[in-house]
Amino acid sequence: MGFAIGVNSEATSNQSIAIGYLKVKSAGRNIGGGGDPALAVGAGAKATEGGATAIGMVANASNTFATAIGKSAAASGDSSIAIGQNTKATQEKAIAIGDASQATNIGATALGRSSEATRASATALGVSSQCYRYTSYCCGYASICIWK
Q1: Which of 85, 98, 94 is nearest to 129 (CA)?
Q2: Angle at 127 between CA 125 and CA 128, to 5 degrees
Q3: From CA 103, how far away is CA 17, in angstroms rounded?
Q4: Where are the alpha helices (DSSP H) in the chain?
Q5: What pLDDT digit, counting tens, does each position of 57-87 carry?
Q6: In what order do the strands lie in the sheet with 39-41?
Q7: If we measure between CA atoms, which residue out of 104, 116, 106 comes closest to residue 145?
Q8: Per-residue pLDDT tens over the stretch 3-15
Q9: CB atoms within 10 A of CB 46
Q10: Cα–Cα distance measured from residue 42 to residue 29, given in angstroms and rounded to the nearest whole number
């Protein structure tokens, strides 16, 4: 079994680590004793798939190799990354960095506070920038790129 510290902490697979309280959960994959361990650190943090990492209060990494860092950060796509408070990376290889940023399609990237990339391979860069067009990017404060 894994290593758990804290009230209601649970590390359910070999080499997985859970540190914190309020049902911190670290699972990972283990088939025949192998697999990829998971890491959850912080009150209510959850890393529920192999190679997942969740660090921060209520951070949630819920797919293989997903990384969520920050309060309420959520990485639910395979190999997705969410860094910052209330960030969301919901699809495969999506990246969201910055308070309340969201990357919600395959390979989408949102960098900057409240930035949003909602189409495949779209990139939104800058505070409140929004990119709604496939394989395109928008850059600058409150910039918007829309599919027409």
Answers
A1: 98
A2: 95
A3: 27
A4: none
A5: 999 999 999 999 999 999 999 999 999 999 9
A6: 3-5, 17-19, 39-41, 53-55, 67-69, 81-83, 95-97, 109-111, 123-125, 137-139
A7: 116
A8: 888 888 888 888 8
A9: 24
A10: 21
Band of residue 33 on the pLDDT scale cut at 50, 70, 90: very low
- Cα–Cα nearest to 83, from 45, 62, 56: 56
Q: In this structure, which amino acid lies at residue 70?
A: G
Name the residue with tokens 């649970």.
Answer: 10
Per-residue pLDDT, 82: 98
Token pair for 57: 């209060």
CA angle 3, 76, 82 (to 5 degrees): 85
* 138 neighbors 144 (Cβ within 8 angstroms): yes
Share of the chain above pLDDT 70, in %: 85
User: What global pTM score does this model have?
Assistant: 0.88
Amino acid 35 reads G
